[in-house]
Amino acid sequence: MYAQMVQSTGKGVKTRAEMTEEEARFQDRIDAGEKIEPRDWMPEGYRKTLIRQIGQHAHSEIVGQLPEGNWITRAPTLERKAILLAKVQDEAGHGLYLYCAAETLGVSRDELTQDLLSGRMKYSSIFNYPTLTWADMGAVGWLVDGAAIMNQVPLQRTSYGPYSRAMIRICKEESFHQRQGYDIMMKMAKGTPEQKRMAQDALNRFWYPSLMMFGPSDADSVHSAQSMAWKIKINTNDELRQKFVDQTVPQAELLGLTIPDPELKWNEARGHHDFSQPDWSEFFAVIQGDGPCNSERMEARRKAWDDGAWVREGLMAHAAKKAARKVAAE
Amino acid sequence: MSTEWPLWEVFIRGQHGISHRHVGSLHAPDAEMAMKNARDVYTRRNEGVSIWVVEARHITASSPSDKGPFYEPSHSKVYRHPSFFDIPDEAGHM
After folding, report:
1. Which of the residues B8, B23, B25, B47 would you substitute to probe the A interface, choosing the one with the greatest number of A C-beta atoms within 10 Å?
2. Reduced to 3 states, what is the DSSP secondary structure of residue B23?
3. N or C: which end of chain A has fewer CB within 10 A?
4. pLDDT tens digits for range A53-62
């Protein structure tokens, strides 16, 4: 996640007896695996939770362009530059697919943007960390996109039709992102000792923030329980985090890099790796706005919005003038 | 004046011989920009050979609550399906 700690109704999941007839019929459709479409009846809580979740997801794609955009002009070769440019362009596309999905729920694009700029809506904590070296482009693709894929693959089966379809498109493109990141890591890890040190340093800095992407344990969260009943969340945060660790450990070994966790070891009985939790107080601080790059990211988004105002207005005025001229000619 | 660009629905023909299919939507000030945006947002990997853009407000959609009554007339006409008729195997492919 790109959507962390999404608030749902805040109440427990209703039992069948507590549901109205409409709510029960709605839940039956979800349980039967039917997709809910924009004009179908839906509980207000379902609609609101989805706007929060899809909106946060969209904002993350958009803000997520910034840490990587930082390296476009400094990519080591023209080919790497073209690849990174294509990747960042994909992120913009993913943001747009998701904004459109959110808009089918009755919120406007401008409202969503304003909620991001005012800080009312969040984006993923991961994008508040700086990208200091070229190796960070590798670590971001490998770990951050890897963690995102872990979450997005099951969301292709989510109950809301437009969200599910956006996730299917995104997942098709996302695998390129992770592979280009791992490719950078392979090159660095097998390069000069200095390059290998950079790769290790990038892994050291991005490991725990990547684990934080899944959000704190939500085993007892009423928000998550409701979202899971509505199939807008498919797995618990801990399940996804475990899956991510299990997948990533052999990949790090292949690179000859060391995951910065002395407690990390294979647990034969569980059939999974044991690992250390990230520092959750750091996570909450970053979410609250105290990460290393929060103000820089928000500043960049506000500047883009303000500097683009004349373009948005000018193109609308031009379109109106053209339309009027066409009417006059007819 | 509101400067929010109108919403456009995008339809793409994936390959020759296939109909256009709805792929998503986007905002654009006019049809020309909608077309360019559609190319950038929905065909970054050669997904299409033809694009249609339609301003969303021009689309009339059936209502979900009509679902039953609206389609009811066809429910009872099972004879419209070829499998309704029992034809002996000896008649050959039909």
Report:
1. B25
2. strand
3. C
4. 999 999 999 9
Q: Which CATH class is domain B1-60?
A: alpha beta
Quote the pTM value. Answer: 0.93
| B9 strand-pairing partners | B25, B54
| Non-local CB neighbours of B50 within 8 Å, separated by 6+ positions | B12, B13, B20
- Give the DSSP per-residue string, A193-231: HHHHHHHHHHHHHHHHHHHHTT-S--TT-HHHHHHHHTT
What is the helix, strand, coil percentage profile of chain B, to 5? Answer: 40, 20, 40
Of B24, B27, B29, which is closest to A97 when you measure between CB atoms? B24
How much is the ipTM here? Answer: 0.88
* Inter-chain touch A318–B29, beta carbons under 8 Å: yes
Size of interface A-B (CB pairs under 8 A): 51
Strand partners, B7: B27
Q: Where are the domains of chain B?
A: 1-60
pLDDT tens digits along A234-263: 999 999 999 999 999 999 999 999 999 999
